[in-house]
UniProtKB/TrEMBL annotation:
<dbReference type="InterPro" id="IPR029061">
    <property type="entry name" value="THDP-binding"/>
</dbReference>
<feature type="region of interest" description="Disordered">
    <location>
        <begin position="376"/>
        <end position="399"/>
    </location>
</feature>
<dbReference type="GO" id="GO:0006086">
    <property type="term" value="P:pyruvate decarboxylation to acetyl-CoA"/>
</dbReference>
<dbReference type="Pfam" id="PF00676">
    <property type="entry name" value="E1_dh"/>
</dbReference>
<dbReference type="InterPro" id="IPR050642">
    <property type="entry name" value="PDH_E1_Alpha_Subunit"/>
</dbReference>
<comment type="function">
    <text>The pyruvate dehydrogenase complex catalyzes the overall conversion of pyruvate to acetyl-CoA and CO(2).</text>
</comment>
<protein>
    <recommendedName>
        <fullName>Pyruvate dehydrogenase E1 component subunit alpha</fullName>
        <ecNumber>1.2.4.1</ecNumber>
    </recommendedName>
</protein>
<dbReference type="GO" id="GO:0004739">
    <property type="term" value="F:pyruvate dehydrogenase (acetyl-transferring) activity"/>
</dbReference>
<dbReference type="InterPro" id="IPR001017">
    <property type="entry name" value="DH_E1"/>
</dbReference>
<feature type="compositionally biased region" description="Basic and acidic residues">
    <location>
        <begin position="389"/>
        <end position="399"/>
    </location>
</feature>
<feature type="domain" description="Dehydrogenase E1 component">
    <location>
        <begin position="75"/>
        <end position="370"/>
    </location>
</feature>
<keyword id="KW-0560">Oxidoreductase</keyword>
<keyword id="KW-0670">Pyruvate</keyword>
<keyword id="KW-0786">Thiamine pyrophosphate</keyword>
<dbReference type="InterPro" id="IPR017597">
    <property type="entry name" value="Pyrv_DH_E1_asu_subgrp-y"/>
</dbReference>
Length: 399
């Protein structure tokens, strides 16, 4: 028993000489005066421990951002958080049924990712897909309609929380880890078609031990695919801490010959810089796949059926909310760097809330799918067969 205790202790100790990743949301400093033109970039510097690298160099700590970009990111982070808060309330009112997994606390990952890629890049993720769906061309109204199972939903009310798509967002996916090989397949298609774009395949620390994840790693490296494998490490896979489920919790090192980067996933400027670095690696430099591990935190439970406090303390959640919140971190940057006043940011908050409230009303007013809608969206438009048989041989639908 003593040797087992020593083994468990040794797993939690950091490697000698290796500094821990910084997870504060507000450690970036401004090193250049802000230009009068709000669209012009200026330089800031990330904390020296914002990144840790495996088989590659860390990104530059000096980052160029603009006032317009930071304010846009702030509003988007507020918007997707308000959306998740509304989904929470609707679920508790029993208007949202089935599974529902919220990304409250992880906004720096989705918004930072969107600002580091281009519209033609592809994104695919798992359960916490609502923010990505909005940022990749969808709408809050479309997400809320889908959660309520209404025709106004992005999948016409027939998909639900984990099945929302856009032309460049290949959805949330309900099978643990299954989106990772699909993402590698999308990247294969991009390379086959000669596209100069990348696919970002996101998964959680809970899915990191799936065999198909490692199979996808192998194929992506073998074929030098422009795949960025992104682990959103929010510390808990369902109700199990990373330390209890993974012998190696440094997920950015688990790609074998695939280089990796661990990132402060609570500072949106760090996530932005990491995504820029990853895209340049895979697309411009054609170096093949790369692993990104965003160290982040979810405030709620794994899903709406999980209170989130049986495997961690309320004090832990409150400490993260009060000291490392990604939105508050960006708010501090904006105010201290003189980009906007507290009143101006409150106006953005109010605008985001109004958009979400209006989207909820649109979703509630939308009708439920019709019975004949069961026969639609099975085949890609234009490829449907002349007829299709239903559950019974006599159930035949003519297109």
């Amino acid at each position: 028993m003593a040797s087992l205790a020593r083994l468990r202790l040794s797993r939690k100790l950091p490697l000698r000489g290796v500094r821990a990743i910084q997870t504060s949301a507000d450690t970036t400093t401004k090193i250049q005066e802000t230009p009068e033109d709000s669209s012009k970039p200026f330089a800031v510097k990330l904390h020296e421990d914002s990144f840790r690298a495996y088989r590659c160099e860390v990104p530059e700590l000096e980052v160029e951002v603009s006032k317009d970009q930071l304010l846009t990111m702030y509003r988007q982070m507020q918007l997707v958080r308000r959306m998740e808060m509304a989904a929470d309330a609707l679920y508790k009112a029993k208007l949202v049924r089935g599974f529902c997994h919220l990304a409250t606390g992880q906004e720096a990952v989705s918004v930072g990712l969107e600002h580091g890629i281009v519209p033609q890049d592809r994104v695919i993720t798992a359960y916490r897909c609502h923010p990505f769906a909005v940022l990749r061309g969808g709408s809050v109204a479309g997400v809320m309609g889908e959660l309520l199972g209404r025709q106004s939903g992005m999948s016409h009310g027939k998909g639900g929380s984990m099945h929302i798509f856009t032309p460049t967002f290949f959805g949330g996916n309900g099978i643990v880890g299954a989106q990772v090989p699909v993402g590698a397949g999308v990247a294969f298609a991009q390379k086959y078609m000669g596209e100069k774009h990348a696919t970002f395949a996101l998964y959680g620390d809970g899915a990191s031990n799936q065999g198909q994840v490692f199979e996808a790693f192998n194929m992506a490296k073998l074929w030098n695919l422009p795949t960025i494998f992104v682990c959103e490490n929010n510390k808990y896979g369902m109700g199990t801490s990373a330390e209890r489920s993974s012998s190696n919790t440094e997920y950015f090192t688990r790609g074998d010959k695939i280089p990796g980067l661990q990132v402060n996933g609570m500072d949106i400027i760090a996530t932005l810089q990491a995504v820029r670095y990853a895209r340049k690696w895979a697309v411009e430099e054609e170096k093949g796949p790369l692993l990104l591990e965003f160290v982040t935190y979810r405030y709620g439970g794994h899903s709406m059926s999980d209170p989130g406090t049986t495997y961690r303390t309320r004090e832990e959640v409150q400490r993260m909310r009060s000291t490392q919140d990604p939105i508050r971190g960006l708010q501090r940057y904006i105010e201290e760097w003189g980009l906007a006043s507290e009143q101006e940011l409150k106006a953005l908050d109010k605008d985001a809330k109004a958009e979400v409230d209006a989207a909820v009303q649109v979703a509630k007013a939308s009708p439920e799918p019709k019975s004949e809608d069961l026969w639609t969206d099975i085949y890609y438009k234009g490829t449907e067969p002349p007829t299709m048989r239903g559950r019974e041989r006599e159930e035949v639908h003519h297109y």
